[in-house]
Amino acid sequence: MTQSLRRPLWSPSSIIALLGFGLAVVIVAVVGGLAVAAPDQQYAALEQPPWAPPPWLFGPVWTVLYVLIAVSGWLVWRRAGLTSPAHVVYAVQLLLNMAWTPLFFAAGLIGPAFAEIVVLWIAIVATIVLFARIDKIAAWLLVPYLAWVTFASALNLAIWVLN
């Protein structure tokens, strides 16, 4: 386990870094969301499995997940900085996260979106493994994200098959 830096929890640089991680996930959410003019209508227009959640559920779930993702990245930053391989994989999974919504909704590429979400799932697993070597809490904070993306992957596949 890498614990070389251990930056103070509430120093000015630590607070700025936490805000930076928060800003990063806000950018991911906003850029992904900008690609979708009316996600509720688009989602509702698709043939869905009976276990599909209602459209209103996605916003609250993703809000919680993005907070966990930001805090997780920040905790690893406190111990390993931004130059660790763990943060490279973290950045990749954020970019993959941001890319899924435009693929699925804006482009209507449900099959390629499924392929992309599988790659996202792998990147999240890799991030959890790398984060666990640095900060176990940071790794555990990503488990709900992995669970939701697992569910979203199954939903994406079901919608692809049905449509």
TrEMBL record:
Superkingdom assignment: Bacteria
Name of this protein: TspO and MBR related proteins
CDD domains: TSPO_MBR
Topological relation to the membrane, as annotated: Multi-pass membrane protein
Family of this protein: Belongs to the TspO/BZRP family.
InterPro entries: TspO/MBR-related_sf (IPR038330), TspO_MBR (IPR004307)
BP-aspect Gene Ontology terms: tetrapyrrole metabolic process
A matching Pfam family: TspO_MBR
Keyword line: Membrane, Transmembrane, Transmembrane helix
Gene3D superfamilies, alphabetized: TspO/MBR protein
Bilayer-spanning residue ranges: 12-36, 56-76, 88-107, 113-132, 139-162
Organism: Pseudonocardia thermophila
Cell compartments where the protein resides: Membrane
Cellular component aspect of the GO annotation: membrane
Primary site of residence: membrane
